[in-house]
Structure formats: C-alpha cells, structure tokens
Amino acid sequence: MLALGPIGNTVLAFGMNRIGSLDLSTTTAFWASFRHVVGSPTIWTGMVCLGGYLICYMLVLSLADYSFVLPFTGMTYALVPLLGYLLLHENVSPARWIGIGLIFLGVLLIHHTPSRTTESGAAN
Known about the structure:
Layout: H1 4-19, H2 27-38, H3 41-63, H4 66-72, H5 75-87, H6 94-111
Helix pairs in contact: 1-3, 1-5, 5-6
C-alpha cells in the first residue's frame, strides 16, 4: 500500500507531463483531450497502481483502526517527493525535506501505539 500509492501518483504525473496542458475550452477540445488521456498506457498504469492501493487500503482498514491507518499512510508523503525528485526531476526545497522528516517522525510515534483499540467488525 505504501508503495502503490506514490508509484501510481508518480506514473500519473509522468503521463500527464508527457501529454501536456489539456484544452477544455470547447466541447471538441474537451473530447480530444479526453481521448488523449484515456488512450495513454502510462495513465492506465498509474490508475492500476492506484486501484491496487485502494484495495490494499481497504484490507488494512479491516485490520486496524482508521485513526492508526490514516496517519500511518503519511509515509507516502515521504516517498512522493523522493520519486518526484528522482524520476520527474522536480526540485524539492529544503523546507519540504524538513516537513517530510517531521511527517516521518510522526509516523514513528504512531507506530508505537496499538493498531486496534476496537473489536474487529465493531462500528462506532
């Protein structure tokens, strides 16, 4: 789950960067842009990765509390800029790296708490 989300988003960003700006000014331009996006294998690869992320996310939610899972997924925020820097050649400022480090420290704190405080299948 922690890999599929960032990889899917990075592949989508790469695909959209290759396509360029979409022209949505007219109906004809909208449909041409739509066909261009839907016809891109890169976009489909990103969507498949994000679909896998969603399936994994649902499985993890069945095993642990939402209040544990969602902050733990913050690890993806550390991977996205790293992938953006390495694969998309984006400039990531020092302030962003510091923020990413703080998120990582927060995830470490959450990791040391119980992952489930409710009974399995209990709805609150």
